Every structure is written in structure tokens, then in C-alpha cells.
Description:
Elements: H1 5-45, H2 49-69, H3 74-77, H4 80-99, H5 107-110, H6 114-137, H7 141-159, H8 165-168, H9 171-184
Helix pairs in contact: 1-2, 1-4, 2-4, 4-6, 6-7, 6-9, 7-9
Amino acid sequence: MLSRLDEIVDGLREYCDALDHARERAYVLSRQVVRASSVAIKHAHRQEMPQAREQLAEARKLTHEMLAAVADSPELRFGGFVHDSEKEYCEAAMVLAALSNEPLPTPEELGVYPVAWINGLAEVVGELRRHVLDLVRMDRDEEAERYLEDMDSIYQTIMSFDYPNAISQGLRGRSDAARGLIERT
Length: 185
């Protein structure tokens, strides 16, 4: 019965070593994606759009490198830190679009998993809240009202994705958080 054990285990060890190497590479890149995305959002809030676009381009490059690192490893590709950093990149791209009054980029245009995109969209609500509060402080109430309506539209959209967590990757919790942010705003 155990005559092939060493052969099987050697193959498994090779597989796990390759998976571990891909995970290590993707993990480093995921941290860089999150950092570049965060900086892009900060620049966008300051209306420093050229710098925001530069950081977003860096986040895009890093995201695609990360996804390439796990392309042969579905165990890593879907869920966990890869999904989270991909979501952050989507959020940054959509915040920049929203604050620049441009159309939202599609998942295909960003080169991302659609579920990461919809979760990124859910996170945009918090960034728009920050923008609304900034506009209110500047007595730009009509503009603030428009962004508040955008926040509500995003909430209505994400609420329509009523799928189990295994599919939506935490969207329901983000929907609940978005509702709270809108109510407080």
C-alpha cells in the first residue's frame, strides 16, 4: 500500500514549495498595492490629480504583478490578502474617477476579479463621505448633496448583490457599513 508514498509526497512537496513561493511573492506585492492605493486616494482628496494618477498607475502595475504571481494558484488567487489588496486598488481607481467626475472604470478595464471590484465599490462610500464632509465645511452644499446621492446609489447597488459570503467575499458587511456611513452623513 505505501510503495508509492515517497513518490507521491515528493510531488506534493514540490507543489507546496511552488505555492509557498507564489504566496511570498504575492504577499510582498499586496502590501505595496495597498500602500500605492492609499496614497492615490490621499492625493485625490487633496485634488492632486496628477500625483493620484501616478500612484494609481503604480498600484495597477503592482496588482497585475501580484495576480501574475498567483495565476497558477487558485488557492491564493481568490480570497485572503490577494482579494483585499485587489479591492483596495479598485477602490482607489473608483475614488479617483468619482472625484474627477469621470466614469467608473469597469472590472475589465482594471483587469480585476469582478467580486473584488464590487467590494471596492462598497468601500468608495467611506471615501465619498469624507469628501462630502469636506464640501460641507467649504459651504459647497449642492455639490455635497450630489455626492451623498452617489453614496446612496452605490449602497442600493451593492445591496442588490445578495449572495453567500463564499461568493461575495464580505460584501454584506460592507453594505451594512455603507448604510451606517450614509445615515451618519
